Amino acid sequence: MPKKKKDENPTPETPQEPIPSEVVDTAPDGKYAEMLDKYQRCLAEFDNFRKRTTKELADRRNDGIRAACEKLLPIIDNFDRALSTAENKEDNFYKGIEMVARQFDTMLDELGVKSIPTEPNSPFDTNLHYAVAHITDESLGENTIAETLQKGYIHQERVIRPAMVKVAN
Q1: What is the pLDDT of residues 113-123, one digit of tens each?
Q2: Is the separation of the CB atoms in 136 and 101 below 8 Å?
Q3: How far is it, in rounded angstroms, from Cα 76 to Cα 101?
Q4: Residue 25 CA: distances (Å) to CA of 36, 38, 139, 166
Q5: What is the 3-state secondary structure (H, E, C) of the chain?
Q6: Mind listing the pLDDT tens digit for each residue in 75-112?
Q7: Strand duo 163-168 + 129-135: pairing
Q8: 89 against 13, higher pLDDT
Q9: 104 near 76, Cβ under 8 Å?
């Protein structure tokens, strides 16, 4: 059996105790305090940089989601129109279109995109809805939604597309 050299299995070194600050503070010209200040500033700058880049990446991701959804929304609208005008709801073609429309809805939900609520007789909100017509209807309240013409979508409190609605009274 070959002999082991001393360097093959070095024993772990005992950690050195930190130098007390009173000893280091007596360094000539206050170099320790200056270097400590630079070190602390560098750590703070790096922490700020890390937080800023994390936020910027999240913002870019959200902007990308919104941009992609803007391109997909006309396609989703066409699927909804096809479903609403279908005569035979038992037809396999109708069922196929319905499955694709559900897949789009699931995809939007997974991305955090929600449709803007536009139930009839709900209040009209200029931040979420776009009024394209005004009607007089005594059965509906003042400044309420009478009909939804096109669905609107929102992502993380930012409107991707406002809902187009008819407003009553």
Answers
A1: 999 999 988 99
A2: no
A3: 7
A4: 11, 15, 82, 75
A5: CCCCCCCCCCCCCCCCCCCCHHHHCCCHHHHHHHHHHHHHHHHHHHHHHHHHHHHHHHHHHHHHHHHHHHHHHHHHHHHHHHHHHCCCCCCHHHHHHHHHHHHHHHHHHHCCEEECCCCCCCECCCCCEEEEEEECCCCCCCCEEEEEEECCEEECCEEEECEEEEEEC
A6: 999 999 999 998 888 999 999 999 999 999 999 999 99
A7: parallel
A8: 89
A9: yes
What end-to-end distance do the CA atoms of the chain give, in Å?
100
Cα–chain-centroid distance for residue 132?
Answer: 29
Say if CB 98 and CB 106 are below 8 A apart. no
Backbone phi and psi for residue 103, each to the nearest 5 degrees, phi listed first: -65, -40
- Tokens representing 132 are 């394209």
Q: Residue 159's closest CA among 119, 130, 123, 120? A: 130
Residue type, 76: I
